[in-house]
Amino acid sequence: MEPDKRVLDKLVELMQREGLDRIRVQVGDTDIDLRMSAPNQAIAAAAADRTRLLPAGSAASAEQSRALPANIKKVLAPLVGVFYRAPAPGAPSFCETGGTVTEGQVLCILEAMKLMNEIVSEFDGKVAKICVNDGDLVTLNQELMWIET
Questions:
Q1: How far is the first Cα of the chain from the last one, in angstroms, to the nearest whole number?
Q2: What is the DSSP letter of 7?
Q3: In whole angstroms, what is the distance from residue 149 CA to residue 147 CA?
Q4: What letter would DSSP give residue 103?
Q5: CA 63 from chain center: how many Å?
Q6: Which secondary-structure segment (H or E) carries 146?
Q7: Could you give all domains of the chain from N- to C-terminal order, each with its CATH number?
Q8: Tens-digit pLDDT profile for the chain (149 aa)?
């Protein structure tokens, strides 16, 4: 089943109203994944914001310390919310450091306004680092994980 234009318009309206950068809806076999910006644009914008907030002398050193190998991809928070590694208390985590993930696999959940938003991997690889602790409040574009591709 393909979604009609009315459904897509409503989803885009919801994203704009709630300030969401990304939304994923799955109904039966239909999977809709909408983004307000391309993934690389969000990464570049987050890096530019960090550089602007640093004192003049520390900008270059901060970028050097944040430089990662080309095969490491950052998973950034698409919204502000509470980070959860598992679907429920006491349940196994979606992924672990050193574990492998596939494109489309759920990595974690961000709870925002009582809604549970699944964050999915955009690539296949191995989890190199989990940057936040379970239950932490994360901000927009904060690093959640590093994935080695």
A1: 33
A2: H
A3: 6
A4: T
A5: 21
A6: strand 143-148
A7: 69-149 (2.40.50.100)
A8: 567 778 777 877 787 777 778 888 877 777 787 877 654 444 444 444 444 444 444 444 344 446 778 899 999 999 999 999 999 999 999 999 999 999 999 999 999 988 999 999 999 999 999 999 999 999 999 999 999 99
Q: What angle do CA 19, 25, 114 make, to 5 degrees?
A: 55
For residue 105 the two structure tokens come to 């696999």
Q: Element (H or E) spanning 9, and its range?
A: helix 5-18
Residues 6 or more apart whose Cβ sits within 8 Å of residue 147: 72, 73, 74, 75, 101, 121, 123, 125, 126, 127, 128
Alpha-carbon span 52 to 72, nearest angstrom = 24
Q: Is the dihedral of CA 140, 18, 15, 25 positive or negative?
A: positive
104: tokens are 């489309």
